[in-house]
């Protein structure tokens, strides 16, 4: 008993002093090493008289636990102190720049196409595409614009052969023809893509983007056309109220035909859509001409519907306040960075078109 | 088509205001393009005479003119026109005037050091014609008007309408008035031209040759003898000037007036200059004539010409000739009012590149029944103004006009428009538009007015009815939110995915033109066929691009010139392989220039290199769902890549379809286009060659396999010939046992000391793990030996001891 007490008191005293890690380890080994003082006491248990053995063992265990705990906490304390000391030396200037990163962008026209697709997707349109190089038939004749029709003058066409049989499509309307020839009605498609006219000035670029729309079914009338476009414009410009005006016009492939204006006003040099008393033309549309339906083997006495064509670049300009059409295709890194979108900004209808 | 409200009132009785007019015109499809106020400013433009010209001291092409602007006032004006000369009568615009064409306000300005007080005007600057060659030359009779305003006071604004090509009838004021009246905007004034009752014989013989492709089907004419051609009376001059036309002489002005008023083009010949009679015939190849625009035209065969015994007098319905034109001393006039086929007019005008007011009208279709009205109206005006006697009217025809009939089912109207109007209303609209209407057992039997070539079937009638009733009556039917087909197909989804995937790697998306500069295209054409545009907008945009690189590198260079150094740009879009529809591919193509970590305090800077773009390509494809374990890469690339630092990637080692190229751009190209950058690398991924996964993401997600047994990593160093690819080593190791070999990594490549020449050392770390158990030393030893043996056998490598 006195032995145990002696050991305990001696080492409690030792452990109270300021120790470094090797000193603590020395103490640990002095007590619990192979020939340590506590280890020696444990070996003694067998030699102790039976009557006292139990008590001895119990006392020994208590002392062992007490010393062990003290040693662990002492080790912890010293280690913590060492870490803290190290951390003090490790302070850096956190305001130094981060490692460099690069950020890509999505072109505003691509973003706009995705927005358009997302809106029309909601009301059941699917996306169709067609080639940039078209034949004369799909681009004009099938669309009720026969050769020598003055309406062809409205399209300054790029040709690829002297016979003028192959050309760069002047509108996305030939996708209507391809779609209707390929499948059977009903049709409900949009067709965004590149279009070309040999025109170049502030507001015309030899290449631009259009989205075609086509909805053919048994009873689709001009009211559906108006409703669809009104829905689209409202969704696209993300406004509750829109002023829209349908005006009679002429396209060979639709009858009746209309051009659509939206109301706007200028506020601080920026166009505000949906208010004001000025009109801006944004698209052409109409009921698909029976001659076009006949050309694609759809019976015009059974099926009817509407088509529209919208200038995508124009929409992007209006929505995002871009002034010069030609800048779209000039590839100025500064412009692309300014007007481009983060690739993670995918327009969806649950999250909204834009942030 | 330019009109004024004043002129419209000749045909339309209305109390409504101009503001209402503008709205109504647009509402019925006659779109108002612009409204110009002529009155306020026009008085400033004065008749003036150049009294002296001197060469400009500092400019060869400019002259300094002393201009008499009346009331003894002389102004110094600098003028660049070649025809500015002493004695010329012209039109002077003082400082403060607004030039109609440019809308620019004139100011006193120094032009190359000489102060100019105002300007001498060309016809085009005053919107009188497209003539911009030199300043206006007024006839001598204007001498008495020096100092007076050239334009008369006009109260009515000039309204410019955009008339769609289907509406030739609205190229005349009366047609516009008729549409307006039908829509409820006033009442159409009755008009029936009194017939000429003359006993005088028409002494000029007219004949239309019946030949194949004859472009003239009817030729009406009358002779007016003993006229005295003069200046037009003020009312007529005012009328023409009010819509921006230049008065010439009474006879010409009258024909122009009738054309503008009722859309009936006419032509006046000096009858004494016609040899014997008129023959309307097809031209012979090589025939020539000088037209009223003072240009000589050489004709092909088969063009419709008006001729006499001596040859061509004019191109029917397009332009007359100088030989038979009327002048102030013309005594006898032959007035022509004919019908020409639109197709014939268009062909001829296109071949000769000619555009005239008459051509514009005839190619859209003139009212074939207006021949007599036109002659009556014009002849009467001529004798009123110029005196003389009219002959009987002669009309030669080789075809008679057939009236067009349409049976219209009124129900179709609501079926297409979605709204209702009464039958009574329909009949009223159609009658107001000039249709003859018979109501016959729930069908309307219609006779189409002869001035409406655009109307041929029921749907055209619906259009008329909707248009005149008002498009605002069309209801809004809310679209149904229902989807029967997926919005995008697999390829379209892939397009969108790749677009955003590449952008997310730091590339900025560009959209460039599908055509390009031939010189740039040639750099990236490789073995592809050049596709020329026949009528390019400029020679720099003369071919369809065979590769996106042509445009991308050009713009990359421009951006480097702007001072950017480290840039990545990409485009996704078409490239062209041929000039037939469909001979195109969709490619996503990126370029990266300069350095990584330029001027970084923390990272070591280095040039962008082929392994950067290789990562971008592979990461993009992996993100898109392709298995990089299966990729196969070799070094066969097009000639625009660095031959030793570029690769071609297949989705699998069967090499069916090439998915991508990547590598350094050939240094020769950089040299030739003078690009200054440390490094330029690029890639092309070919969307059409990517096989579309049949399994959906859903299918792939169901099975989740993993092993919790211990992994072992073993390192090997092989010595191989230099031309052995790392890919071969990796593939042979991976293929040993896919269930055990989990990962193969190259961690070092070394050539030099201790390695024989022409050989290299490749160090590889292999991760081995079983799904069934923890592998013991014996198992591992077995696999190790297998790896070494396989690699040695397949690639000729030797394990480095």
Short key terms for the protein model shown above:
heterodimer, A: alpha+beta, 2 domains, 8-stranded mixed beta sheet, two-stranded antiparallel sheet, elongated, B: 801 residues, Phenylalanyl-tRNA Synthetase, Chain B, domain 1, 7-stranded mixed beta sheet, 43 strands
Short description:
The complex is a heterodimer of chains A (355) and B (801). With 355 residues, chain A is of the alpha+beta class.
How does the SSE layout of this entry go?
The complex is a heterodimer of chains A (355) and B (801).
Chain A: H1 2-16, H2 21-32, H3 37-44, H4 50-89, H5 108-122, E1 126-127, E2 133-135, H6 136-139, E3 166-168, H7 174-182, E4 187-196, E5 207-217, H8 222-237, E6 244-251, E7 254-267, E8 270-273, E9 278-288, H9 290-295, E10 304-311, H10 312-320, H11 333-339
Parallel strand pairs in A: 1-4
Antiparallel strand pairs in A: 2-3, 4-5, 5-10, 6-7, 7-8, 7-9, 9-10
Helix pairs in contact in A: 1-4, 2-4, 5-10
Chain B: E1 2-3, H1 5-8, E2 12-13, H2 18-27, E3 31-36, H3 39-42, E4 46-55, E5 63-68, E6 74-79, E7 89-93, E8 109-111, E9 114-116, E10 119-120, E11 158-162, H4 173-182, E12 187-188, E13 205-208, E14 216-225, H5 234-242, H6 250-262, E15 267-270, E16 277-282, E17 288-290, E18 296-298, E19 304-308, E20 311-315, E21 319-320, E22 333-340, H7 342-352, H8 357-362, H9 371-386, E23 389-390, E24 394-397, E25 404-408, H10 411-417, H11 423-432, E26 436-440, E27 443-448, H12 458-469, H13 490-503, E28 508-509, E29 515-516, H14 518-523, E30 531-532, E31 543-544, H15 549-561, E32 567-576, E33 584-593, E34 595-596, E35 606-607, H16 610-623, E36 632-634, E37 641-650, E38 658-665, H17 667-672, E39 680-686, H18 697-701, E40 712-721, H19 726-734, E41 741-750, E42 759-768, H20 777-795, E43 798-799
Parallel strand pairs in B: 13-16, 28-32
Antiparallel strand pairs in B: 1-11, 2-12, 3-11, 4-5, 4-7, 5-6, 7-10, 8-9, 14-22, 14-23, 14-24, 15-22, 16-19, 17-18, 19-20, 20-21, 25-27, 26-27, 29-31, 30-31, 32-33, 33-39, 34-35, 36-37, 37-38, 38-39, 40-42, 40-43, 41-42
Helix pairs in contact in B: 4-11, 5-6, 6-9, 10-12, 19-20
